[in-house]
């Protein structure tokens, strides 16, 4: 008599295969979540960085127009403003303008330094982004 052997997978083989597939799917999902979170963080940082750069350009234009003869100690200033940024919430911008080189007895130097610092809270952590530039 000729005995026929049926071919196929056993239940144990199928369960092992499903378990391995589930591990790979879970790992892929975790990677997807991390990549999405990093992209969101990079987007927020880029938006805030653009706002910081914009404020820095505005302040440079103001200070060079206001003090055309150069930087004197009276031109130093410190201002703080808050702005709501979509997807981030409230962001505090601190702008500091100063004369990095000391002027001698009322004379002016040809150099301004403008520093803008943005501070915001995300997931319970305070984050800070700062840009600084010199201009004459």
Number of helices: 1
Major sheet summary line: 4 strands, antiparallel
Give the number of DSSP strands. 4
Class from helix and strand fractions: alpha+beta
- The radius of gyration computed from the alpha-carbon positions, rounded to a whole number of angstroms, is 30 Å
- Report how far apart the termini are: 102 Å
List the domain count as a whole number.
1
H/E element string? HEEEE
Low-pLDDT runs of 5+ residues are: none
In a nutshell, what does this entry contain?
With 136 residues, this protein is α+β, with helices and mostly antiparallel strands. The chain is built from 1 helix and 4 strands, in the order H-E-E-E-E.
Q: What this model shows, in words?
A:
Helix content is 41%, strand content 30%. With 136 residues, the chain is of the alpha+beta class. A hairpin with a 3-residue loop joins strand 1 and strand 2. The chain is rod-shaped and about 110 Å long.
């Amino acid at each position: 008599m000729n005995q026929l052997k049926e071919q196929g997978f056993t239940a144990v083989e199928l369960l092992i295969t499903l378990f391995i597939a589930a591990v790979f799917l879970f790992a892929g999902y975790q990677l997807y979540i991390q990549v999405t979170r990093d992209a969101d963080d990079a987007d927020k940082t880029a938006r805030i960085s653009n706002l910081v750069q914009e404020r820095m350009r505005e302040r440079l234009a103001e200070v060079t127009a206001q003090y055309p003869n150069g930087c004197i100690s009276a031109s130093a200033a410190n201002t703080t403003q808050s702005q709501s940024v979509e997807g981030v919430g409230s962001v505090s911008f601190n702008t500091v303008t100063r004369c990095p080189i000391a002027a001698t007895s009322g004379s002016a130097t040809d150099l301004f330094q403008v520093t803008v610092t943005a501070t915001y809270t995300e997931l319970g952590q305070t984050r800070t982004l700062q840009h600084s530039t010199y201009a004459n």
